[in-house]
Design a protein that fits this description.
Blueprint: E1 7-11, E2 14-18, E3 22-26, H1 32-41, H2 43-46, H3 56-64, E4 72-78, E5 84-94, E6 100-107, H4 116-132, E7 136-139, H5 146-153
Parallel strand pairs: 6-7
Antiparallel strand pairs: 1-2, 2-3, 3-4, 4-5, 5-6
């Protein structure tokens, strides 16, 4: 993996990390339509591992969970087309002397098994450790989810 660009834009409401192939950015209300379409198109692929909002109203509820303090939701997107390839949520953020967070993630069916998530994890780690400041990240994986176990077992390097 070649990391051509690092942090492109970072301020209170927006993050954007890039490589030559992908972009990591926050989930926003503008993503509602594409996100819901991907959830519906990926229902068989995601079940039984992940339950994501499949209606605009449920998406709006879901988005409210990510306040930037106790939880974040990032998107891994194709840099050329801007298409969403997957999501990575960083939640249960604990502050204080023992700073930690839980990471949950999923690819969407149209972009699965194309390396987007593996490549995106390096950017997620950079954002989490540099931007959010936890001392550790813990993966939220169900024991029978072999694809997620494989991804968590790969060595994603920090760009």
């Amino acid at each position: 993996m070649e990391y051509a660009l690092r942090v492109i834009l970072k301020h209170e409401n927006m993050i954007r990390y890039e490589t030559t192939r992908i972009v990591l950015r926050r989930l926003t209300v503008e993503d509602r339509e594409e996100f819901v379409e991907l959830v519906i198109a990926s229902a068989g692929f995601l079940h039984p591992w992940v339950y994501l909002p499949a209606t605009p109203a449920k998406f709006d509820e879901y988005l409210q969970r990510f306040d930037g303090k106790s939880a974040e939701c990032t998107l891994i997107c194709d840099r050329t087309s801007g298409a969403i390839a997957g999501t990575v949520s960083i939640s249960d953020i604990i502050r204080g002397p023992y700073q930690r967070a839980t990471v949950g993630y999923n690819a969407f069916a149209p972009s699965a098994r194309q390396g987007y998530m593996s490549e995106g994890f390096g950017l997620v780690f950079r954002f989490a450790f540099e931007g959010l400041g936890p001392h550790r990240l813990e993966a939220d994986i169900q024991p029978d989810d072999e694809a997620s176990l494989r991804l968590a077992g790969t060595k994603s390097r920090l760009p």
